[in-house]
């Protein structure tokens, strides 16, 4: 009997050990949902459907069952924590949820400690990073991609600023921060953030107060990031205060699309308040699995609620856990739980902390989840290395009355398009602006024309536009005496540009200055920064320091700095013909004429009879040939190759010099010439003379700070008359001012002229506060004025020069031709002459070396250096033909002499032989 009991106990132990080794029969999964919310209701149905589908195939988990326990957190963080702890005590291997990011941040610390993976398809805060929360996995695209999509929509329609309205919770707060970053990448920004109480605690009065503030803002593009109850309340209040009318743009995050998809029938009131708004919906590719699940939905939900994309993501999340568990079973992974060493030392109290155990297989289960590669009802499911889902994308929805229509798609792969993203995945990515497309949108108020996106602040208050109250140059801008009327060239340009804007701009001109002297334009611009003026209109130069504090429009007139100095008329004289060239140019040219004559004489002397003769004749030939080339009338022909090459190069130089001289002399004799010691800004800076500038302009700072001119050299001048007096009396050597002012000054004062070239490039523009949309629209209007000719007509009306000085002001300030303009030609000539001489002397030395042995045979003189030099000079002076004939004759004579010597030796030999024979006899 005891043996039977012993065998039974052993069998039970073996069976228990075997079951422990192959895992529990029931795989426990927890779910933290808020069942009273739309996503909570839809997710509950989807999770249970997935549980049933998995358990319907006993072979999938090897006969084991998947058990999902749902805990209702009821919008309460404390209840969420209690639910998570209960799941941990019950040896749960994974938890789906929590539903919001606030609790995800809290419970992820619990997951990190106990190694239980948390999977959420609704807590999509981008700050829930895997580095900080390794056991938290987002199974739907996180909100960073949604904010990128919204930023792309704002950029696509060309809006520069948005207002963000959001609930004061972690998820909404963080996504608005990311939205600001994404907008900044596209040169846009959030101009105002309206914060509401966390959902669902926001009340109507709080929402009303914030929307009234938003209504006072310039921006009319509003991004709403919240949840159902608060979101619908915002739209209701906005409708009641007129913020759902023409001109407004409302972009809601995905909460609105879940309301539209899951609410079976929107009330007419709600549909009316949402009319014209835009929202995003996670894009689910069309597939057979998706259609099959949607066809089951009415049966699963009993028609109580509609299906939204987060229900599909919930269904796939359960399947992801099931696949990961199956793989863990195949890997013989552990499903055991062990005590947490960090909790073992904690005692006292009634908390049952010892029941919180560490899931030994949690790390491997998490790894299996992240390596998942399956196809679900949401399409292909796979994680990137950063744990984001592959190819996140959204549908862009336009709410129209009681219906909603899709106007396009957004994907992280290709941006905005009207083609489903899965079609574009087969093509190379293209995020260029020209490839971005959306269908037509019905905006709040029922219009289809794109809203401007902004209005003037304070409900159309007149803009206070500062204008300089000038004392001089009143043609540009001035206040009519004893009236409030402001007129002038700049005012007419501004008013003409306003007429081209598609909206009215109420404004009021406010003169700036005491009327006794020209005001400081830098102070005028600073008044915009301080808020005293909404804009500044006038002859305001666009300079660096000003662009740092305000935005300027497109320049409507060029206004670079120029130098004005007194000039005297150069009258004709008997020596006018010398004026085209500077003395140095004349001298160098004369020297080169002599050099070319000498070089040609050297190259031609031994071969050309025309370059031989008595010394006086040869010197005369050199001079004649040199200067006759100026007129291409030289009669001497060159016969050597080197001589011809030198002459060709020189004649090319002479051609250019003659042409330049002729053109300059023609200008001198036909155009009035002006002379001044001031040649431009360079000569003015290097001198110690005083310089005048206009009071109130930026010229003083530019000359002292940029050109380092001492301030004691700078003289302020208040009017054109002061310019003229100071220049005539010599109080200043020159005046530096902007081009348009100088143009007006010279039209009345003919004794002065612009010296040198314009040395800065700038323009005049209208100043507006930083990032003002009006600055962009006005720039477009100014370009249109330039293209249609209206800008030129306004210029001719106010700034056309007076007839008395037309001829004088059109005079060209002709300068003498200087050597620096021709030194390249002379350098080429010099190199060519030098090479020709080197080649010539090399060839002559070669001939001389062959000639010297013949000379040494017949020379009876010594062979010292002086003798050799004398011989070489004689050789160089000798005509080449004569040298050749003489050389032949000498070689012939030398041959005859050698023959005679041989005959004498022969005779001497014969005599010696006869004499020896006689002696022998």
TrEMBL record:
The keyword Signal applies. The lineage of its organism: Eukaryota, Viridiplantae, Streptophyta, Embryophyta, Tracheophyta. This is Glutamate receptor. It is a multi-pass membrane protein. SUPFAM superfamilies: Periplasmic binding protein-like I (SSF53822), Periplasmic binding protein-like II (SSF53850). Glutamate-gated receptor that probably acts as non-selective cation channel. Its main location: membrane. One of its GO terms (cellular component) is membrane. Disulfide bonds join 750-805.
């Amino acid at each position: 009997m005891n043996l039977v009991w012993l065998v039974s106990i052993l069998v039970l132990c073996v069976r228990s050990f075997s079951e422990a080794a192959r895992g529990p029969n029931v795989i426990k999964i927890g779910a933290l949902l808020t069942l009273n919310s739309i996503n909570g209701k839809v997710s509950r149905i989807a999770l249970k459907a997935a549980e049933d589908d998995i358990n319907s195939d006993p072979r999938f988990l090897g006969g084991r069952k998947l058990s999902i326990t749902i805990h209702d957190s009821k919008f309460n963080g404390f209840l969420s924590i209690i639910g998570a702890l209960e799941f941990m005590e019950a040896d749960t291997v994974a938890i789906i949820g929590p539903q919001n990011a606030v609790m995800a941040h809290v419970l992820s610390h619990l997951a990190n400690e106990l190694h239980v993976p948390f999977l959420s398809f609704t807590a999509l805060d981008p700050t829930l990073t895997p580095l900080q929360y390794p056991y938290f996995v987002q199974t739907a695209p996180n909100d960073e991609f949604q904010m990128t999509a919204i930023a792309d929509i704002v950029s696509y329609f060309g809006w520069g600023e948005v207002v963000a309205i959001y609930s004061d919770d972690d998820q909404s707060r963080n996504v608005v921060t990311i939205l600001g970053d994404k907008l900044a990448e596209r040169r846009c920004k959030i101009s105002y953030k309206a914060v509401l109480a966390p959902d669902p605690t926001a009340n109507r009065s709080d929402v009303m107060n914030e929307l009234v503030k938003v209504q006072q803002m310039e921006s009319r593009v509003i991004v709403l990031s919240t949840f159902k109850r608060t979101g619908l309340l915002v739209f209701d209040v906005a409708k009641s205060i007129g913020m759902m009318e023409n001109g407004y743009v409302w972009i809601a995050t995905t909460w609105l699309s879940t309301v539209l998809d899951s609410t079976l029938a929107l009330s007419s009131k709600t549909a009316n308040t949402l009319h014209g708004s835009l929202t995003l919906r996670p894009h689910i590719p069309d597939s057979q699995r998706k259609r099959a699940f949607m066809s089951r939905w009415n049966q699963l939900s009993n028609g109580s609620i509609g299906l939204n994309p987060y229900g599909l993501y919930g269904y796939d999340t359960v399947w992801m856990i099931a696949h990961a568990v199956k793989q863990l079973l195949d890997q013989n992974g552990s499903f055991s739980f062990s005590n947490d060493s960090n909790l073992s030392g904690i005692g006292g109290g009634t908390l049952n902390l010892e029941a919180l155990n560490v899931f030994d297989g949690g790390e491997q289960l998490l790894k299996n989840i992240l390596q998942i590669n399956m196809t679900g009802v949401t399409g292909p499911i796979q994680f990137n290395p950063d744990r984001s889902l592959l190819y996140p994308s959204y549908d862009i929805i336009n709410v129209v009355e009681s219906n909603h229509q899709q106007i396009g798609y957004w994907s992280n792969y290709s941006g905005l398009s009207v083609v489903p993203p899965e079609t574009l995945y087969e093509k190379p990515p293209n995020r260029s602006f020209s490839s971005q497309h959306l269908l037509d949108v019905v905006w709040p108020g029922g219009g289809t024309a794109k809203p401007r996106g902004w209005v003037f602040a304070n409900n159309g208050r007149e803009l206070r536009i500062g204008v300089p109250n000038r004392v001089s140059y009143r043609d540009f801008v001035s206040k009519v005496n004893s009236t409030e009327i402001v007129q002038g060239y700049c005012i007419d340009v501004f008013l003409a540009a306003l007429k081209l804007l598609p909206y009215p701009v109420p404004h009021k001109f406010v003169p700036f200055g005491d009327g006794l002297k020209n005001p400081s334009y830098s102070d005028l611009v600073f008044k915009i920064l301080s808020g005293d003026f909404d804009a500044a209109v006038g002859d305001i130069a666009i300079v660096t320091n000003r662009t740092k504090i305000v935005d300027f429009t497109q320049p409507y007139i060029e206004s670079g700095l120029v130098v004005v100095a007194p000039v005297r008329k150069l009258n004709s004289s008997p020596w006018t013909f010398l004026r085209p060239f500077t003395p140095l140019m004349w001298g160098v040219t004369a020297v080169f004429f002599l050099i070319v004559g000498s070089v040609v004489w050297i190259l031609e002397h031994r071969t050309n009879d025309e370059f031989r003769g008595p010394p006086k004749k040869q010197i005369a030939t050199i001079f004649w040939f040199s200067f006759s080339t100026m007129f291409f009338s030289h009669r001497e022909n060159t016969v050597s190759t080197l001589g011809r090459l030198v002459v060709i190069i020189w004649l090319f130089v002479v051609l250019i010099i003659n042409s330049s001289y002729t053109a300059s002399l023609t200008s001198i004799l036909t155009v009035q010439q002006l002379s001044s010691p001031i040649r431009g800004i360079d000569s003015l800076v290097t001198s110690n003379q005083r310089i005048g500038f206009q009071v109130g302009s930026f010229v003083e700072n530019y000359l002292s700070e940029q050109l380092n001119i001492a301030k004691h050299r700078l003289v302020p001048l208040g009017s054109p008359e002061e310019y003229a007096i100071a220049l005539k009396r010599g109080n200043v050597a020159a005046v530096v001012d902007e081009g348009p002012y100088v143009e007006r000054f010279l039209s009345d004062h003919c004794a002065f002229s612009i010296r040198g070239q314009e040395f800065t490039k700038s323009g005049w523009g209208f100043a507006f506060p930083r990032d003002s949309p009006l600055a962009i629209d006005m720039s477009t209007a100014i370009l249109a004025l330039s293209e249609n000719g209206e800008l030129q007509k306004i210029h001719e009306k106010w700034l056309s020069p007076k007839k008395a000085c037309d001829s004088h002001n059109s005079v060209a300030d002709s300068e003498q031709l200087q050597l620096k303009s021709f030194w390249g030609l002379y350098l080429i000539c010099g190199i060519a002459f030098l090479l020709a001489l080197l080649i010539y002397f090399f060839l002559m030395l070669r001939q001389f070396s062959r000639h010297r042995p013949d000379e040494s045979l017949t020379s009876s003189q010594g062979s010292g250096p002086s003798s050799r030099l004398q011989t070489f000079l004689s050789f160089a002076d000798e005509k080449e033909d004569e040298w050749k004939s003489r050389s032949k004759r000498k070689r012939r004579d030398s041959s005859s002499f050698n023959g005679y010597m041989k005959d004498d030796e022969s005779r001497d030999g014969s005599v010696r032989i006869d004499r020896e024979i006689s002696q022998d006899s």
